[in-house]
Amino acid sequence: MDRGFTGHTRQIEAATPQLTDVLLRAAARLPDKVALVRGDERVTYGELDARSNRLANALARAGVARGDRVLVFLENGTEAVVAFWGALKANAVACLINPLTKPDKLAYLLADSKAAALVSDARLARVVEAAGPAPACLRVALFTGGEPPPGALAWDAALAAERADTRPERKNLDIDLAAIIYTSGSTGDAKGVMLTHRNMIAASTSISAYLELREDEIILGVLPLAFDYGLYQMIMAFQAGARLVLERSFAYPAQVLRKAVDEGVTGFPGVPTIFAILAEMRSRADFDFSRVRYVTNTAAALPTKHIDVLREFFPNARVYSMYGLTECKRCSYLPPEDLERKPTSVGLAIPNTELWVVDDQGRRLGPNEVGQLVVRGATVMKGYWEKPEATAEKLRPGPLPGERVLYTGDYCRFDEEGYLYFVGRMDDIIKSRGEKVPPKEVEGVLLNLPGVKEAAVVGVPDPILGQAVKAFVVLEQTASLTDKQIRHECQSRLEAYMVPREIVFVSDLPKTHTGKIQKTGLVEGEPRRGT
Question: Cβ of 186: how many Cβ atoms within 10 Å?
């Protein structure tokens, strides 16, 4: 009997769909179709189904039970994909951890999640060992890629000993947890976002609907599977019966782009840092991306110059600017046909989701009034893992009795047509001269200046202003802007209190594993003036 569960369940798979069914249905319908391309390896749906069955059986044999957490500490690769689906088939909860995670943070994640199983790679064994003794709750560790550490099992041997044509009995309900995705923890310890099978199916179905994903899709995956944006590329690809071309990262852009062309990629998901790299590439004509049907961006509205670059790189693609949080996956998307007339908007609510903004007293606001964004829908997380106070802050009573809605902590506004505009994180807002300065608005002006590759705006203490606006700017390789020129351009585009008081030129900006700029890691260097 499962630990902590005493009830009886009766599962009818067709009536109670779970995330596991995404792979099961694709494998039943398209067993011989290539589902995953990783380097020279090409894996069919039938092979993924069989391998994940073997892993699920191995986990169950080791004592992993319903609701247990399985930490997957691997690079993007076939084993990571198999581990995710194998954990779900074992009725467990998948926790994908970025392979760049340091020992102290890995130790925290193992302890915080109370992991029952760890799946990692022999090349990462040193990090695992440096994390310290395994927690008492850890019952099994499997290592791919060579000789496992003492006490751990070898992946190949463990899977070879199990059957591929059966899997553990399904015991989960669609309201049970499928995954815990840990946030970056830039303002303290990382929080585990709890997502149910229903949450993840709802998100994948909604996003796939407006992207109009098809079975003949070939989707590029360069973002970490530990990042929800990267993970959902795999889920949506498999849900459509499409193909995922998985890369470890975008560290070698030309190599990744060549692979994408050779594989005939039709879907190109990216983030602003990837598009900034594309903007600097001088060999755009070397890549034929005429088959790319859509490009997606998340985090914030795309700078105008990035839109121009994307149209040059991907002449036949529809460009989707999107916005969301790990706590609900996706909030909104801007239909490509609206990109010209509303370039700074992050669009409309995704299907099956409701959005509104409120003031500090919780009252709904009208058009062009800035307030906190609230999200209602099936994608909203179940809460933060073992953090009831943080959960209560985010999930509050909704308009209907008994429901909880997500208070995002983001300032947003709607225009008269119901299009959403992201203003800034509530804890990022700079208070200068008694005014509220949204860093995103200043960064948007900076990023649209010719010659500016990246920008980050922060508030620094000031005895007179309260906080002064400070900008860190990365220039493109051939640019020669000065701080005076940049300040002049800002003065012509921004209110006086928003103009950066100090501009620091840096060669790079600190980033998280997912490519987001990490403002807490900004360190001022010697200003580099243009000539």
Answer: 12
pTM for this model (two decimals): 0.86
Rounded Cα–Cα distance for residues 355 and 390 (Å): 21
- Phi first, then psi, for residue 352 (nearest 5°) are 70, 30
State how far Cα 185 lies from the chain centre.
14
Distance in angstroms (rounded) separating the CA atoms of residues 419 and 366? 12
Closest CA to 161 of 147, 142, 145: 142
Pick the closest to residue 448 from 304, 312, 308, 343 (CA basis): 304
Encode 98-109: b = buried (16+ Cβ within 10 Å), e = exposed.
Answer: bbebeeebbbbb
Alpha-carbon span 344 to 334, nearest angstrom: 10
CA distance linking residue 19 with residue 350, whole number of Å: 20
- C-alpha dihedral sign at 157, 162, 165, 167: negative
Contact 343, 301 (CB under 8 A): yes
DSSP secondary structure, 256-290, as one string? HHHHHHHHT--EEEE-HHHHHHHHH-S-GGG---T
Model confidence pLDDT, tens digit, residues 39-81: 999 999 999 999 999 999 999 999 999 999 999 999 999 999 9
Pairing of strands 353-358, 395-397: unpaired
Sheet holding 294-297, edge to edge: 41-44, 34-38, 243-246, 218-221, 267-270, 294-297, 318-323, 332-334, 348-349
Q: Strands, E, within 351-398: which ranges?
A: 353-358, 371-377, 383-384, 395-397
**At 100, which amino acid appears?**
L
- Our CA angle for 58, 61, 67, nearest 5°, is 90
CA distance linking residue 154 with residue 167, whole number of Å: 20
